[in-house]
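Sanity check record (used in CI):
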Amino acid sequence: MTEQPIIYTEHLTKRFGDFTAVDAISFEVQKGEIFGFLGANGAGKTTAMRMLCGLSLPTSGKATIAGFDVYKQTEKIKQNIGYMSQKFSLYEDLTIKENIRFYAGIYGKSDAFIKDKTAQLLQQLNLEAEGDKLVGSLPLGLKQKLAFSVAVFHEPQIVFLDEPTGGVDPVTRREFWNMIYEAATAGITIFVTTHYMDEAEYCNRISIMVDGKIEALDTPAGLKETYNAATMDDVFLQLARKATRSDA
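Expected output for ABC transporter ATP-binding protein:
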């Protein structure tokens, strides 16, 4: 039997007065999948992600995250996910160790767990001698890697990444994606938004939102075949032109 999807949505909708920000989207994500959630600014990505993270109640439709209902079990959802935004969600005036301890404490991890995992994390990032440094003093790329490590420190079932690689160089982005692959291999589901179309190629599957609706959903290869496109940039441009014609 097929495993129950770790993210499930059916006609999920969010309205603000007369404006429909997310319009009846339906999709599923399987455990350990790297799922790309793409769309132009204003397409509804952030609003949809907030509903999936238990931060905003839907207007209508259904959704479960790690088996928990987005209407009734938002606190359970928050306990089973990690989150990282483009701003990295770290406290710059705290040290590396203090940031780790703070976030691990939120999820109720024991002192022994925090101590062991902190040592492992610092070793992985080659920061054994830097644990007492302020996060604000770190280079941008290293902050990014640390923020991701903190987001998965409590071993969540799903991690939501909102434009996580903005502003860093291509080499650092590639290294960051290696960390994503490692997390997915360990069974963590990755739900990522990005405006870098080359990064979309790294995902197992991609959905593309246009004006609050999912207009395309497939593997990168499947989307390129459907739209007779050489790259994901070409796919995205075709969908954007289609939307422009529909609005005309």
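The CA atoms of residues 177 and 226 lie 26 Å apart. If this sentence no longer matches the regenerated tokens, the check is flagged for review.
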